[in-house]
């Protein structure tokens, strides 16, 4: 049984992450929405449109399983283009309309998450997820695409404790990162110890006595697993050959392995 307070906390954190990103774009003049971001061919409008598209998919999963199944079928028919097509559709809207739709979509998803049975599992493009896990995944993606927007605007965001959700997904996705590249998953667990924003006790994952370890700032780990910075630009340390390899290929998101960012591209 999930701790109700922990479930409520992740819903609140998702809300706050969305508000933080909205604060970066809500006052932008319309031409600024066309600024390029680090993602090839994606503008700020594409980034927000993608988040809105994925929020709608999550809402369908929670409220209309048949409708979500149809959405998945459309993705299967165009596996290499459906994400870009969804972003293009939204990016073509006037920025004020896109902002209003994204805001309304977040509110609808927030209501649906709160109403969902805590132990129920809902369909997704990967394994089915409980509502709390879905909220964590939406927070991870909101933060990652928010980083693209911040980079486009030349804004340095202050990291928050909400990164613990991103870090947890990144740790749990270790074996997936190996598997999506056709590599065998390491046989043993890793110890991951991350320095949280603002200091304090490290966020620790995995067996304390594990021979292979990863340490460093939580922000750097989150930038790595969302592929928003190259490993060589981050202060992460790996002990052990499998842990070292993991830092080269880590990803917290479902789908094919992305190209990542080039060395030296991090702000």
How is this structure best summarized?
53% of the residues lie in helices and 6% in strands.
- In total, the number of domains comes to 2
Largest sheet: 4 strands, mixed
Give the low-pLDDT segments.
Answer: none
Order of helices and strands: HHHHHHHHEEEHEH
Architecture of the largest domain, CATH level 2? Up-down Bundle
By CATH, the superfamily of the largest domain comes out as dinb family like domain
Strand order of the largest sheet: 2-1-3-4
Q: Could you tell me the CATH topology label of the largest domain.
A: Four Helix Bundle (Hemerythrin (Met), subunit A)
Distance between the termini: 42 Å
Described by the principal axes of the CA atoms, the overall outline is globular
């Amino acid at each position: 049984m999930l701790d109700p307070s922990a479930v409520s906390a992740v819903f609140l954190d998702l809300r706050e992450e969305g508000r933080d990103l909205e604060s970066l774009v809500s006052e932008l003049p319309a031409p600024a929405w066309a600024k390029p971001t680090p993602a090839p061919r994606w503008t700020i409008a594409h980034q927000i449109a993608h988040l809105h598209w994925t929020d709608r998919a999550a809402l369908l999963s929670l409220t209309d399983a048949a409708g979500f199944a149809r959405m998945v079928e459309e993705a299967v028919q165009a596996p290499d283009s459906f994400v870009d097509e969804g972003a293009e559709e939204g990016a073509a809207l006037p920025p004020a309309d896109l902002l209003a739709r994204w805001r309304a979509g977040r509110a609808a998803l927030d209501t649906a998450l709160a109403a969902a049975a805590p132990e129920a599992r809902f369909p997704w493009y990967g394994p089915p997820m409980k509502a709390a896990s879905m909220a964590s995944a939406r927070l991870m993606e909101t933060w990652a695409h928010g980083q693209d927007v911040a980079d486009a605007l030349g804004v340095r965001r202050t990291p928050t404790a909400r990164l613990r959700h991103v870090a947890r997904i990144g740790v749990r996705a270790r074996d997936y990162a190996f598997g999506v590249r056709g590599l065998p998953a390491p046989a043993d667990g890793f110890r991951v110890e991350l320095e949280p924003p603002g200091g304090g006790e490290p966020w620790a994952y995995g067996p304390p006595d594990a021979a292979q370890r990863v340490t460093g700032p939580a922000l750097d780990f989150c930038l790595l697993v969302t592929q928003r910075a190259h490993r060589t630009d981050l202060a992460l340390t790996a002990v052990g050959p499998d842990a070292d390899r993991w830092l080269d290929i880590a990803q917290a998101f479902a789908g094919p392995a992305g190209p990542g960012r080039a060395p030296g591209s991090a702000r």
